[in-house]
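Run: sequence + sodium ion -> complex structure.
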Amino acid sequence: FESVRLYTNAFIRQDEKLLLGYKKRGFGKDLFNGFGGKVDVGETPLEAAIRELEEEAGITAPLEHCGTLFFTSTDSKEAAYIEVFYAEQFSGTEMRPQWFAISSAKEQGLDPIPFDKMWEDDRLWMRLLLGGCHFVGRVDFGPDAHLQKWWFGVRPR
Ligand code: 6U4
Ligand code: NA
Ligand code: NA
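>> structure
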């Protein structure tokens, strides 16, 4: 890669439910994901995470930093450095966001987390996030955004 771009990604959990949004355009189109985007000049990752959560989901939440991811891709000269945040409460209205069941036991008839409609790496680290770990990971993507290699380090939160 020739350059690195800094992003945020924020996940809201309530008991056994996880809030995700369906991306309608741009990078990651047609995938479910947490809420986030590019960190603007003069912003900290936490400030950007709070702003993007407001812009994309219409909610505010006491976000806590829970991990760091680094992605490279053979399809791009730009690597992605993503600060991941989570919260267990939020306020505000929800519109595009959708709840999914965390445990295999389906909660209130919700669908399970749609890993087949998410970035391929999410299944690697979501269990760390939901399991209470602080994590750092690097994922290298090959052609067509398929996983090639990954490395993860974890510690308790
Ligand atoms: P614009 O429209 O330029 O303002 P912005 O909302 O700033 O866009 P966007 O939507 O391109 O940025 O951000 C990409 C989002 O996708 C960030 O939340 C990071 C996330 N993301 C990128 N690669 C990912 C991957 N491999 N796995 C993952 N999330 C990824 O889980
Ligand atoms: Na975004
Ligand atoms: Na943005």
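>> summary
Helices lie at 45-57, 122-130. Residues 45-57 form the longest helix (13 residues).
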